[in-house]
Amino acid sequence: MTINVQYFARLREDLGRDGDQVAATEGIDTVADLWRHLHREAPPPRLMVAVNQSHARLDSAIADGDEVAFFPPVTGG
Amino acid sequence: MAVRLFSEPFDPWSLVREREQELPMEKLGAASVFVGRMRDFNDAQDIRGMFLEHYPGMTERELERIVAEAEFRWPSITCEVAHRVGSIDPADTLVLVAVWSAHRVAARDACAEILERLKHEAPFWKRERLSDGSERWVEKNTPGR
C-alpha cells in the first residue's frame, strides 16, 4: 500500500511533477511528516493541504492508501 | 442544490431562467444573483487570457459542501452555483452564485457567504496570460470584505 501525493498549480510547476507515490512507512504519521520525508525541508508558508479531497492541516494524521494533495492558496471565483 | 463546472463558456442568465422554471416562484420573494467575469486587467497590467486549474473531484465536493452548509444555516434557500474551468477569455463568466428565498435577508446573506467561501476554500487556481505572451499565477484574490 502507498500514499498517493498530488501537487497543483504553481507548486506542481516548481516541483516539476504532478505527484509522488510514497510507501507508507514508520515515521510518517502526519501531513507535515510526509512533506519532510519527500522534500527534506519544512513545509513552506501558506501551503494548503487536503487529505482524501477534504481540507486538512499539517498536523492531520495520514494513513495507508490516503490521497494527499499539496497546493498554493486558492484563487477561484 | 445544483453545482456545476463548465469547461466551455456558459450563459449565467440562461441557468437562472432554466432553474426558475422548476422552482415555486410564487413562494420565493427574493433572488440574489452574483455573476463574476474575467477582466482584461489585473495589477495594472493587460491580461489576454487565463487558465483556471482545478482539482477534479475535490472541487465539486468543496462546492457541494459550501452550498450544503449554507442550506443548513439558512434552511429556506435554494441555490445554483456554476464555475468555469480551463482556458478563459476576457468577459467570459467565471462564476455564478444564485440564491432564492422567501425573503431578502437570507438570499442576500447566503449569496455573499457562498461566494466568499468559494473564493477561499474551493480548489481553483488562476494563471494569467499577459500581452507580452508571458504567464503568471495569481497569488491571491482581492479582499472581499
Q: What is the assigned CATH homologous superfamily of chain A?
A: Beta-grasp domain
Q: What integer is the average pLDDT of chain B?
A: 96
CATH fold call of chain A: Ubiquitin-like (UB roll)
CATH fold type of chain B: Aldehyde Oxidoreductase, domain 3
Describe, in plain words, how this protein is organized in 3D.
The complex is a heterodimer of chains A (77) and B (145). Chain A is α+β, with helices and mostly antiparallel strands and 77 residues long. Chain A has a single domain (2-71), classed as Ubiquitin-like (UB roll) (Roll), CATH 3.10.20.30. Chain A is globular and about 40 Å long. Chain A has 2 helices and 5 strands; from the N terminus they run βαβαβββ. Chain B is of the alpha+beta class and 145 residues long. Chain B has a single domain, classed as Aldehyde Oxidoreductase, domain 3. Chain B is built from 3 helices and 9 strands; from the N terminus they run E-H-E-E-E-H-E-E-E-H-E-E. In chain B, the strands form 2 sheets. In chain B, strands 3, 4, 6, 8 and 9 form a 5-stranded antiparallel sheet that branches. A 4-stranded mixed sheet of chain B has the order 1-5-7-2, with helices on both faces. In chain B, helix 2 runs antiparallel to helix 3. Chain B is elongated and about 50 Å long. Chain A binds chain B through residues 6, 8-10, 50, 53-55, 69, 71-77, and chain B through 36, 52-55, 57-58, 61-62, 83, 94-95, 115, 118-127, 137-141.
